[in-house]
Each structure stands twice: as structure tokens, then as C-alpha cells.
Amino acid sequence: MTDVLRRGRASLAFSFFAQGVAFALLVTRIPAIQDRYGISDALLPAFLAAVPILAGVGSVCTEQLVKRVPPSHVLRWSQPVVLLALLGVGAGDGLWAIGLSLAAFGLAVGSLDASMNMLGVSLQHRYGRSIMLGFHAAFSLGGIVGASLAWVGAHWDLALFVSYLPVVVVLLPAAFVGSRWYVDGSGPEAEVKAQGEDGSSSGGGVGFKLLLPLCLVMAVAYIGDSTVSNWSAKYLQDVLGSSEQLATVPYNVYMVTTLIGRAVGDFGVRRFGAVMVVRAGAVVAAVGFAVVAGAPGAWVGMLGFTLLGFGLCVIVPQTFAAAGRLFPGAADAAVARLNIFNYVGFLIGSPLVGALGDAWSYRGAMLVPMVLVLVTLVYAKSFASEPSRYGDGHERPRTADVGRGSNGL
């Protein structure tokens, strides 16, 4: 069984890596995609918003699908669709083609994100210790690789299809081979029982009242993440007066620090517990936004974005893990519902900062995600929830500092 789990862990980490590469190749070549298809500036936001909206639909569908088939089957077939849709983005001709490719990409990404995290949560439970941050570190590494490949394509003025084809040719068969070793949890959620109206779970149901704090934390984390990805370059150049070349650095620094933080984060969870790690991450992220908002120059602003990477990187993986602990009999459903708020935060973050920046100031706009990320401190105890049996037969959450030692889950 140890070998089975190790192979399952390695194959799932590769899936996270491949998804990071594909997603970075799409979002970092948006200007080239806009030029290829002649998408106007007025129409571009509609195309960009459609992807996370459809991803949310895909996540909802996955919740229902895993009641009939294991999450590994969903992941096995959704990842190739994502890669082929990426190739379609580079090969299409006309608005109908890019619309169809992005629709397929969005729906498949929602299923892919949900099923990957379902398998990650179940594997962490089987391991009996924190490993979830490691999977998201693989995603961050894939994002760095994908962004680097996108830079090469842009630097050499390669057509999108030429840039995407080698990546798909390598990743697609590798993902198929790796999918042989995915490890499911207890299988489809046939044993999920009815849920009480008060939000408590009588067995394996998902009570939205109990899940809501984690949903809020997930949305807030992605508001912060989308703020960095969409506004760091503009902020450094327009507000802090950096050069155009230096303005490209903050997001790369953010991705690298995210990778480092996630690579070592599991050790912190095992040593200090999930609650303390999440609290520390929220505080560091808030300090990062404060430094960015008050920075007198570009290099101090860079320090702020560096802190943001270290702070935000731990929150999302631990939110998924907490959902699995909170609803052990319905972890797949909890992860699928929680995953929707990934896209909610992404949709809110960029327009929110942009609107506040135009109406007020971009320095002031950076204080809003700073305040929002501190909401995580209010709900930090949710990250230690695990079921406790009460005399009435219901399972309700109790807080315990899980994540300590080798048997934290």
C-alpha cells in the first residue's frame, strides 16, 4: 500500500504541474490571443470572464458526477480536454473558434480543479499527515515553467499553435500514463446521508453553514491572488515609477515565493498545526499589501509582493484540506462546492481593484484586499475542524489543532 500511495502522490503532483503549465500558457499570452482573433478591448473582458464562470459550472457538475464515478476518472478525462482546448486556442480561426475553445477550457478546468483537489484531500487523509501544500507547489512550479515557455514564444514571435503544440505533445501522453496510478478515497459518495436543515451533518452530508467560512476564506485568497496577477505590473510602473522591464518582475517573484512557501509549508503544518500556519499566512499577506500600499519606490513595492507570495500561498491548499476534515463522509462534495469560490474570488478581485483605483487611488485600492485577507483570522478555527460524535447521533465540528505530528489527520 505504501508503494501505491507513493505512486498516487507522484502522479497527482504531475497532474497539478501540468495544469499549472497549461493555465500559465493561456493567461500569459492573452495579448497574442487578442491580436490573433481581433478581439476588441471592449469584448475582451467578456471572453475572460466566461472562463471562470464556466469553470464554476464544471465544478458543480463534478460534484454530481463523482456520486457515480470516482474522481480519478473525472481527472483522467478532463485533463486531456484542457490540453486539447489550449491547442484549439492556438489553432482556431474566427471568434466562434476561440469562443468554443475557451468554453471547453473553462468547463474542463472546473472539473479538473475539483477532481485534483478531491484526490489530494483523500490522499492526505490516507497518508495521515499534511501533503496538500506539496501538490499546490507542483502547480506553482508548472506556472513558472508555463510562463517561461510563453516568454520564449513571445520573444521569438512564435505563432500560438507552434508554442502550444510541443507542450501538449509532451504533457498529454504523460498525463494519460500517470493517470493509471491515481488513488481514490472511499469511492463515489454513495454513503452520504441526509443533511439537517440547521447545517449540521447527520453522517456524510455537507452543511453549507459549516462550509461558508471556508468559502469566504477561499474567495478572499483569490481576490488577493488576482490582485497580484492583474495589477502588480501596472502598479509598479504607474504608481511607483518603475521601468517597463522592472514592472514584469513582481509577478515572477510572487510565483517563486509561492512555490517556496508551498514546498516547505507542509512541514510547518505538521509542526505547528494548520490553524497557526493559516493565521501566520494571513498576517504576512496583510503586511505585504500594507507594504505595497505605502511603498515609496519600486524596490520596496517588490518586497511587498514578495511577502504576498509567502502569505497567500498556504491559504488555498489548507482550505481544501480543512473542508475534507470538516466533512469526512462527503469530502468530494465539499471540495467541489468550495472550489466554486476560487472562481468567485478571481471574478471579483481584478474589477474591484480596478474600479477603486480609478475612483479613488491604486494605493488605497491595495488596502481593500489587505482588510479582506484579515477575515481569515476570524475563521481560522475552521481549519482545525474534525468530526465529533454527539449523543444525538449527529456529527458536528469540534476544533482541535490537527496537523500536529504524523497523525494530524
Automatic annotation (TrEMBL):
Pfam families: MFS_1
Listed Basic and acidic residues bias regions: 389-401
CDD domains (UniProt xref): MFS_MosC_like
Positions of the Major facilitator superfamily (MFS) profile domain: 210-409
Keywords carried by this UniProt record: Membrane, Transmembrane, Transmembrane helix
Region (Disordered): 387-409
Tagged with keyword rRNA-binding: no
Membrane topology, record value: Multi-pass membrane protein
InterPro entries tied to this protein: MFS, MFS_dom, MFS_trans_sf, MFS_Transporter
Subcellular location: Cell membrane
Annotated transmembrane regions: 12-30, 42-61, 81-110, 130-151, 158-183, 203-224, 272-293, 299-323, 335-354, 360-380
Entries under PROSITE patterns matching the protein: MFS
Protein name: MFS transporter
Originating organism: Streptomyces phaeochromogenes
